[in-house]
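Continuing the batch. This is chain 6 of the set; chains 1 through 5 are on the previous pages. Same settings as before, nothing changed between runs. Recording input and output for traceability.
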Amino acid sequence: MKKFFRWGALFCGVVMTLCMGNVSRASALTIPEGIYAEQDSLAGMTQEEAEAMIREKVAQMGNGRVTLVAAGGHEITVTADALGISWANSDFVREAAALGTEGNVIQRYKTIKDLQFENKVYDIKLDFDVNAINELLVSECVKYDQKPVDATLTKVGDEFQITVGQVGYELDVESSIDVIYDYMENSWDGKDCRIALNVAEEHPRGTAAQLAEVRDLLGSFTTSYKTSNANRSGNVANGCSKINGTLLYPGEVFSATDTVSPFTAANGYAMAGAYLNGKVVDSMGGGICQVSSTLYNAVLLSELEVIERNPHSMSVTYVDLSADAAIAEGAGKDFRFVNNLEYPIYIEGITKDKKITFNIYGKEVRPENRKVRYESEMLEKIEPTVDLITADASKPLGYVSTEAAHIGYKARLWKIVTVDGKEVSREVVNNSKYTVSPRRAVVGVATDSAYKYEEIMAAIGTYDLEHVRVVIGLLQAQ
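Output for chain 6:
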């Protein structure tokens, strides 16, 4: 009986306590004692007051300074606001306000009594805007990236000068977003901080020791342009200067067209003769193919790997058949080769006394008793059968302007290797076909005599320039 009254009294006390608490909370709607948002007590606050207090705290944290370390050690300092800071778990305030007000009488009483012995502490969780972080990195940090600068060689007189390279840096934006987000969400204490971004280093090609090996002359070739006019001579010299000083590392591809173009006056070129549709016409950069052809032969002697070579449409005079290499901007013709050696190569281009020379330097690893040479073989010669004669009524009878014929050829180039003067191998390097082009002439036919006009037109119809000349002589004598 005593036990019954004891439990009854306890139950009544609980009921009275909870009822009084409920009345108080119902009237004030405040959070009970013992509830904290991290180190800050929320006791006595309404839900709205607690939320406002925490939002103000997060706003103050947004003023915290965050220093990002980008490429090359460059530092960019921003506030946490720039990273899109926000409060991520605001729902806990509603939960805190509901403590001691939910469940049956015993459960509510137990919750209130527990808070008197042990505080309920909620963590304030932060979130950050990934898009804002990405925009910040792209706009403020990527600009400190730098491309690697390869070590280079410069030939001054008979000596080579080495310029050491520079390390390149590139910000990994994607992984750096993760680095910032993870640190700010999980490790940041609201104080000023410093975050090292993920920056990849790219080392330059070439070392001083490697470039010091580039001393041996691997191949040299010279052609003459002594019959060229000033414009063509200038084009040859200009194109040569753009190739001079080229350093190619192992595996690197050289493109003649990319190196010497564009063929414009602004790039140093002038109008000069070039092949077009079986004729010689003035074009910007005319003569540039002598540059690529001279280099082609130096490359062959150096035994570098040629990956693209095109013959001219008609034969040229400055190199043997099949020893030429035509290039044309925008026409799909290029001369390209790759440095297939284990060491870098250096290309020296020289123009002097209307001669162009290319010297290719590297590290010689071929045996001294092994020699290589190239021989051109003509397979077929195709002579033009007729002359292409055009009548010009604006020129007087007796006027003749001619353009030489071009013989057609089929040819191939052989590579011959000897050891101690004895031939050990012979292989075909290329096969070439050169179009035949007839001798062209423009003949004046203007005359007051119908008879003479008919005679000269009949002569032109024979497609024989020598016969035309004879007829012109007879008519002029009359």
